[in-house]
Specification:
The structure is a homodimer of 343-residue chains.
Chain A lengths: L2 H9 L6 H14 L6 H8 L4 E6 L3 H4 L3 H16 L3 E5 L10 H5 L5 E4 L6 H8 L4 E4 L9 E2 L3 H15 L4 E5 L9 E2 L2 H5 L4 H16 L9 E3 L5 H12 L7 E4 L2 H13 L9 E3 L5 H5 L6 E3 L2 H16 L13 E3 L12
Parallel strand pairs in A: 1-2, 1-3, 3-4, 4-5, 6-8, 6-9, 9-10
Antiparallel strand pairs in A: 7-8, 11-12
The structure holds a DNA duplex (16 and 16 nucleotides).
Chain lengths: 343, 343
DNA sequence: CTGAAAGCGCTTACAG
DNA sequence: CTGAAAGCGCTTACAG
């Protein structure tokens, strides 16, 4: 009973007699042998049996973000079809961002999900020289990219408000850079944003407004480092307390927009009669909100599934065409209307 | 520049001069060396740097189930504090339930999350002889168990309906056994359920109803193999189409209850005037529903965090006390009222 | 169908 | 501060 024979008993039943195989399993049971060690087998076979997902923030935030959950659902569809595990790697345990977990993670490839330019965890992942794909951001030459037309999509929702007659805007943005800043972001800060998605969406708004003769410098952009309803609420309250009060609030995510609607209500105003609110993402909560939220739909689950499939193809060294950007669509619902004449 | 020195450059900077270390990194860069291989390092150090979560179903379902997402959020809080990754393992790619992924998964321990008695994936995990904890089900001697008083909690919500005056009940259950059965489950099937949680909750309802003189054999239990709003809707429609029509529907999960409420409405009836509906879990959607759902609150996030912490303690060979069951609470909202006299 | 040999890529005492 | 040696637990041709 050489090691090779034991190995064959577990991995290649056809290489030995059924009796011998059973006898080996019996002996294993008696000796308390737990079967081939996963790590040693992986080292020898040169595959980990899992793909890693790098997430910007604390993982616990990802599970609280409907868009991220839908994305992960899509990735999991691809990995489970392939019999692979899905290893979730945390971005930021506190302020540390220790790349050690990324260096030591036992995976066959990485999905980089919406991270900032120059993120040390992304760099640690790239140093591993494993197959990788990037979703949303950052753009990295040579890596497959899965995302949407952020700029054009943002422009379309701003144009919708312009068409309704709005001229006084406020913007609620999620983080422009990973420095935990919250407050009014001037144009210098906007342009210096380390998050490509933030930059692009703001530019999209800007181009729509400027095309209508609105001075972008006069549009207050409230940036909050989180993309939650609480953040949206706080940001919108700040915007609505300033003069001249905007007639509409553009939000970079639905979570922010849902919070902004709460803020409007808490100030005794009504959506959309007094203030129109728009979001971005079209998470399921957007359609269920009161009023239902006007937003930009993007296909979160498909995005994840595509990222997973492309990564798997890279791992298997199949050659896949460079992925195209996924389609988005303006979804007009009840949270937008022409500006009221109350002011 | 022996292998040991290179290893030290990466792992123990204090063991060599800064210059030599830089020189090693330079050479590594030039040669395209990606740094220590994660798997080989793991084999040598005997740790994987991740914990595995075993989920009954397709992983993509987990991400669609608010209770599961909250649970994973809790687990991730524990793992990211410890700098570990979270490896999600799929239960069922189709009907296969291939334990190969469980056997080969590179983890330091397992969280078994709500699986059936005798599940082959659970057995494969246990054969690995790694530290493990079980959440909700199945009960396995010798393993730490994290869960709630399912029977007592279910009894309390049924007693609430009894106290309101209801005597004609219908029950909507999720899977009793992993055989994909959907339809009315008789008492034999109920008792034979391979899911401990299903058994316990049904027993809890039963004891409350029988204490009030209601014959359990007369209570239709519609079992659906999924726990989704669509399933709840279909099940409730079936129950409401039978005579004598129940005045209230007990649902084993909030997802099922949310669907049951849709069914009531789609039949031109009103919740709670015509039909009272109760759920179980108190997911965020329950409070936001119209009307808000009466249900049993259980602490999903805490459950996950506790499971994670106990598993980590086992991995580190710290001795933790056997965990107690987590508290639940009946939350009475607008979906329950005394039975109407319309029938 | 079975077993001896090489090697996957690393880390860890240990001797110098 | 540096390097030679042993070994983590397995799998895979290969020879018999």
């Amino acid at each position: 009973m050489s090691p090779a024979t034991v190995s064959n008993a577990y991995n290649r039943p056809d290489q030995l007699s059924a009796e011998l195989r059973e006898q080996i399993f019996d002996t294993a049971r008696r000796l308390g042998y737990a079967g081939p060690d996963a790590m040693a087998r992986g080292l020898r076979r040169r595959r980990a049996g899992a793909i890693g997902v790098l997430y910007e923030d604390r993982l616990s935030y990802a599970f609280a973000d409907p868009a991220a959950v839908l994305f992960l659902q899509g990735v999991s569809m691809a990995t489970e079809d392939a019999g692979l595990g899905l290893l979730l790697l945390s971005g930021a345990p506190g302020a540390e961002r220790d790349p050690e977990a990324v260096r030591g993670s036992v995976v066959d490839g990485f999905v980089v999900y919406s991270m900032s330019d120059g993120d040390p965890l992304v760099e640690a992942a790239l140093e591993r020289r494993l197959p990788a794909v990037v979703v949303d951001q950052p753009r990295i030459a040579g890596l497959p990219f899965i995302g949407i037309e952020d700029r054009e999509s943002a422009r379309s929702v701003a144009e919708h408000l312009i068409a309704l007659g709005h001229r006084r805007f406020g913007v609620v943005s999620f983080a422009g850079s990973p420095d935990l800043f919250s407050g009014i972001a001037d144009t210098a800060r906007q342009e210096a944003a380390a998050y490509e998605v933030t930059r692009s969406r703001l530019r999209g708004y800007r181009s729509a407004l400027e095309a209508a003769g609105v001075r972008w410098e006069d549009v207050p952009v409230y940036e909050h480092h989180e993309s939650t309803t609480e953040a949206g609420r706080a940001a919108a309250e700040a915007l609505l307390s300033r003069g001249p009060r905007p007639t509409t609030i553009l939000c970079l995510s639905d979570q922010l927009a849902l919070g902004a609607m709460e803020a409007v209500r808490s100030m005794g105003l009504s959506v959309p009669k007094d203030i129109s609110v728009v979001g971005f993402d079209d998470v399921p909560e957007a359609a269920r909100a009161t009023p239902p939220l006007t937003t930009v739909r993007q296909p979160h689950v498909e995005k994840g599934a595509l990222a997973g499939r492309i990564l798997l193809a890279r791992i298997r060294e199949e050659d896949l065409p460079e992925p195209k950007l996924l389609p988005t669509r303006l979804v007009v619902r009840g949270s937008t209307a022409p500006p009221g004449d109350r002011f």
